[in-house]
Design brief:
Structural class: mainly beta
Number of helices: 1
Number of strands: 6
Distance between the termini: 34 Å
CATH class: Mainly Beta
Number of domains: 1
CATH topology: OB fold (Dihydrolipoamide Acetyltransferase, E2P)
Shape: globular
Strand content: over 45%
Order of helices and strands: EEEEHEE
CATH architecture: Beta Barrel
CATH superfamily: Nucleic acid-binding proteins
Strand order of the largest sheet: 1-3-4-6-5
Radius of gyration: 15 Å
Amino acid sequence: MNKTIFTGRLVKDVEFKDGEKKYARFTIAVNEKVGDKTNVYYANHIAFGPLAELVSKYLKKGSKVLVEGKFTQNQDKDKRDQISFVAEKVEFLDPKDKTQENGEFPF
């Protein structure tokens, strides 16, 4: 089974490409508490089609999300494996009244 679920906040604004294939790239920070220490992991995601449009329209740096999807493995030009995640479902976790006029979200 290839299934991933992440909850975290976007570390930067969504990168959206509109063309023959619409896609949106975004990275979320995921916290894990281990004893007294908190580890932070960064997960790169990509969404396609209508989901990409929604993500690019409504999410900004700091947005809290839950992302369900699957992982994929690619090789870069130096033949190093890179793991990224394909988003299949994205839930926006920030309440509407928490957003500020300038688009930033309080932490």
